[in-house]
Design goal:
By secondary structure, the chain is α+β, with helices and mostly antiparallel strands. The chain has helices at 46-56, 71-84, 89-100, 120-133, and strands spanning 4-8, 62-66, 104-107, 110-113. It has 4 helices and 4 strands, in the order E-H-E-H-H-E-E-H. Helix 1 (46-56) packs across helix 4 (120-133). 29% of the residues are buried.
Length: 134
């Protein structure tokens, strides 16, 4: 099975204001078609984490960014991942709720951060540790 890392966008990134950030998934890598320049000298929280993960992880690991409003894709992904880890009932509901929070970091359904992304180095370390367990 191919591993999947999902970054759930934060409040600034999730704004449905139209334009470049209104879609559900955006590639931030240097070779991609979309790149965020820092606004007012402040980079969004997702872009540096994405770039660090993409640079550190092997190509066979999918790194995706999703909007918290894209619950039609996100909820089934979280449920499948939680069930693969043996979660049922209230534990499964808590895991799904945590993964739906803005600025969440999810690896194969395991929620590593909820409600606030770690810095790029900490995110890479947490993802590599989670992938090493598999």
């Amino acid at each position: 099975m191919r591993s999947r890392v999902v970054l759930v966008r934060g409040p600034r990134d999730a704004a449905a204001s139209g334009g470049c950030c209104s879609g559900d998934v955006r590639p931030f890598d240097e070779g991609g078609s979309h790149c965020h320049a820092p606004q007012d000298g402040v980079d969004d929280g997702v872009a540096p984490v994405y770039r660090a993960l993409r640079a550190a992880l092997p190509e066979d690991v999918a790194v995706e960014i999703v909007s918290p409003s894209n619950w039609l894709w996100l909820v089934p992904e979280l449920v499948r991942g939680a069930r693969r880890r043996g979660l049922r009932g209230p534990a499964l509901r808590r895991a799904v709720r945590a993964g739906m929070a803005v600025e969440s970091l999810i690896v194969d359904g395991a929620v590593l951060a909820s409600g606030g992304l770690p810095g790029p180095a900490a995110a890479v370390a947490a993802v590599e540790a989670e992938l090493a367990v598999r």
